[in-house]
Amino acid sequence: MNTTTLIEVKQKVLDKNDHIAEELRRRLSTCHCTLIDVLGSPGAGKTTLLAALIGELTAYGLRIGVIEADLESNVDEKTIAQTGARACEINTHGACHVDARMISQAVESLEPATLDLIFLENIGNLVCPADFDTGAHARVLLLSVPEGYDKVYKYPYIFAQSDVLAITKADYLALNPDFDVAELKRQAHVLQPDMAIFETSARNYDGIEALGQWIRELTIRNQLS
Amino acid sequence: MHELALVREVVAKTLDLATQAHAQQVVSVTLTIGEGRDIIEDYFKGLFSYLTRDTPAEKACVHINRVPITARCKTCAHVYPYNPYRGNPETCPECGEANRELATGVEFTFDTIEVRP
Known about the structure:
The structure holds two protein chains of two kinds.
Chain A (H helix, E strand, L loop, with lengths): L4 E8 L2 H16 L3 E6 L6 H13 L5 E7 L4 H7 L4 E6 L8 H10 L7 E5 L16 E7 L11 H5 L3 E5 L12 H11 L4 E4 L8 H17 L1
Parallel strand pairs in A: 2-5, 2-6, 3-4, 3-5, 6-7, 7-8
Chain B lengths: L1 H19 L4 E10 L6 H11 L9 E7 L2 E4 L5 E3 L18 E5 L3 E9 L1
Parallel strand pairs in B: 1-2
Antiparallel strand pairs in B: 1-6, 3-4, 3-5
């Protein structure tokens, strides 16, 4: 038997994940809860920025939950729990990304109908998480000053996939004169013309109000729609 | 290890489709992967053979069509080759505007599967 059959498939490889992500986004919108995916390399300051944002946004009355995704450990969950936000931890045990199914289950455990906003702290990685839609309404990408400004063209896909760029640890700008903020902004806007860019320092509370306001506006738009 | 997560999805789809077609053997699969997706083809194919061992897709040939990255100008709709790793050209070669969106280059589709009954 040497005859073979060629079958046209024409499906997106990640269509199952995309479908689950779309369902989750719709379900969250229905219960007026906004999901924000927070991305960045290990040490970019994701957990620290979130702790500052939780303080800022809780003062406006927002009820916040956090999904902490890490390869292992619950270090970040404990840090977030100290802020008073509802936190849950997902361990991927070595996998470099989280997918929509994992996030969907974690979201349910946080009872989204009783929350206004859920942050997903994604795995620290600038490559793999970009491929997997997590069902978030927006993606916030962090780049810290110690990492260097020249990351846009090295990791174009994740920049093109993000709605917000938070330049974190901006208090280090004085120590790192090579960090060219203007060039970083220009390059980021080449890939993502609509990207909102904030310079933040969780230590000095710089830029936290401005980023917090952007997030509040997103949650309000989501509640009105 | 970026490819592993993606290849796992391809293998799962391959085996699903083989089952649906009541196939004894998968001869080949064809994928389209945009050049904006960071994958190394050799590594991708190697992982496919590894993950399909002892399945009907063992020894299947993986054909990958790469699609170049292009941008579509939001002002004049001109589509032009674009290199995001160099950030050029910075503006539309037709009208000079910088406002654009990616037109092609991030595809990731399963196009065909060739099976033996």
